[in-house]
Automatic annotation (TrEMBL):
Entry keyword set: Membrane, Transmembrane, Transmembrane helix
GO molecular function: transmembrane transporter activity
One of the Pfam families matching this protein, by short name: MFS_1
Membrane topology: Multi-pass membrane protein
Region of interest (Disordered), residue spans: 467-487
Signal peptide limits: none
Composition skew (Acidic residues), residue ranges: 476-487
Localization terms from the record: Membrane
InterPro entries given in the database record: MFS, MFS_dom, MFS_trans_sf
Membrane-spanning intervals of the chain: 12-33, 77-97, 109-130, 136-164, 176-199, 205-227, 262-280, 300-320, 332-352, 358-380, 392-415, 421-444
CC annotations in GO: membrane
Major localization listed first in the record, in broad terms: membrane
Protein name: Major facilitator superfamily (MFS) profile domain-containing protein
Length: 487
């Protein structure tokens, strides 16, 4: 039997390096997001006008028509880059999930970080050609290269699989996932803070990208030094063809196992709910950037807004951790609470109309939406067997990569079509997708309750016994009894 202190120390040895990796990687990733959004927007503008004109385009209302044209073209280039990344990443997501289960949990993390370093170097070279067509071409090349590493979603899913391996019960899984989510949000905060600072001092975009690459190198060192390798003897006996077919076989095995336990429908409902929830979130980063620029936000204000939002999200995760320690709150209830609260923010964005108070007022709504992803990952981790966690989280990454593709196409098309009359229409679409996710979660809760009821063992109906005809104890008096009575 494993001592609790030993299990706890083993859990911390697994979780702490993962949290450090998540902080460093997400810091670098959102530096990358800020830099590439600014790079594409400024390059498209410089291809049409000079630098002084581009510096005033967001503040001068007389340039509104040209600004809309530049925003449409910028969103189109963002769409091209996202598609070139996501299509490849969608294909490779199951492969990384299989590597996590058959080789070791560490390998996908290291491969993704190495690929991100190469991608960062390519986009940094592209920044030296800002304002030229070559910059946009290198941007597409960087996204294609990034697709072969799976991107941030593969790394996050691999980190969840690695960290939840030592977990022995539900509470440990929830706490581990909450810790990783908190570290992810801390990384986002640090990334946006660095981005805000660099923009405030009017540094060049390549300075941001250089910081991005240095953070990735540090992340790679941490992963190589502190993550343990769990070797699998079977992996050496698998030939190349079997390795290529392994994701399909693993997918089949996962579905068969879930179906045998009557969990396949539940698993698919959770994945579809996650798909609808992340559809806007994964595909809207560039659209939000353009939308805020249309409302006279500059790059520093854009980064500052998301810094405050992520700080609020960290506070929400602290509240979640306290609730989990003091009360045994159902994960699905918390997921529903997060979804319901997240519906307010998109409507505030949609009808802001240059009202910055409404934009910042959306932060209390968005801070609690993190509950959905935390609790849903916990439910999925408990739903699948231990040996299938990598495949399950690989499917989560696959769904999120599909969200990047479908969400980006949908958000860009809606924004381009409505920018002339109602730019906030895309945020109404966001609210609709989250309502669909909420309906699916409520349906999942209903069918799981029904399964629990049908599987509850029923007591046999008690039949009354007539003691005069069939006494409970049929005994005959003996001599000793009679002697005691007459004594």
């Amino acid at each position: 039997m494993v001592e609790p202190s030993t299990a706890s120390s083993g859990l911390w040895r697994a979780v702490l390096p993962i949290c450090i990796i998540c902080v460093l990687y997400l810091s670098s990733f959102f530096l990358f997001v800020c830099a590439t959004n600014s790079l594409i927007y400024s390059t498209v503008c410089l291809l049409r006008a000079n630098a002084s004109f581009c510096a005033q385009i967001d503040q001068n209302q007389s340039f509104h028509a040209l600004q809309e044209s530049i925003q449409k073209e910028s969103s189109q280039w963002t769409l091209y880059g996202t598609l070139s990344f996501s299509i490849i990443a969608c294909i490779l997501s199951p492969i990384y999930g299989s590597l996590s289960d058959t080789k070791n949990r560490k390998l996908p993390i290291v491969l993704t970080i190495c690929n991100a370093v190469v991608t960062g170097l390519i986009i940094m070279v592209a920044s030296f050609y800002q304002g030229t067509q070559l910059c946009l071409i290198l941007y597409l090349v960087a996204n294609i290269v990034n697709g072969f590493g799976g991107g941030a979603l593969i790394l996050i899913s691999s980190c969840f699989g690695y960290a939840t391996d030592p977990c022995t019960d539900k509470d440990q899984q929830v706490q581990t996932i909450a810790l990783i989510e908190a570290s992810l949000n801390i990384g986002v905060v640090i990334g946006y803070l660095l981005c805000t600072f660099i923009f405030e001092v009017h540094a060049r975009i390549w300075h941001i990208l250089l910081t991005h690459v240095l953070l990735l190198v540090l992340t790679l060192i941490v992963s190589l030094v502190f993550l343990r390798t769990r070797s699998v003897a079977q992996a050496s006996r698998i030939n190349l063809r079997q390795k290529l077919m392994r994701p399909l076989v693993d997918t089949h095995d996962l579905f068969v196992g879930l179906r045998q336990n009557s969990l396949l429908v539940s698993f698919l409902i959770l994945l579809i709910a996650l798909f609808f929830y992340d559809l806007f979130r994964m595909g809207s980063s560039s659209i939000i950037y353009l939308y805020l620029h249309q409302m006279s936000f500059d790059d520093a204000h854009y980064a500052a807004y998301f810094t405050f939002e992520q700080l609020a999200t960290c506070l929400a995760l602290i509240i979640l951790a306290v609730m989990r320690r003091r009360w045994n709150v159902n994960d699905l209830y918390l997921a529903c609470v997060g979804l319901c609260l997240s519906l307010v923010g998109p409507f505030l964005f949609a009808f802001a109309r240059n009202n910055r108070a409404m934009i910042f007022g959306a932060i209390p709504s968005s801070m609690f939406c993190i509950y959905f992803s935390v609790c849903l990952r916990s439910v999925i981790a408990r739903l699948v067997p231990e040996q299938d966690k990598g495949k399950a989280f690989g499917f989560v990454a696959l769904i999120q990569n599909l969200d990047v593709v479908v969400g980006t196409i949908t958000c860009v098309e809606i924004y381009q079509a409505s920018i002339d009359f109602f730019p906030g229409l895309v945020f109404v679409f966001a609210a609709i997708t989250r309502i669909l996710a909420l309906i699916l979660i409520l349906y999942y809760h209903r069918i799981t309750q029904a399964i629990c009821i049908t599987r509850t063992p029923q007591l046999a109906i008690a039949t009354p016994v007539d003691e005069s005809e069939q006494p409970i104890l049929d005994t005959e008096p003996n001599e000793t009894d009679e002697q005691l009575v007459h004594a």
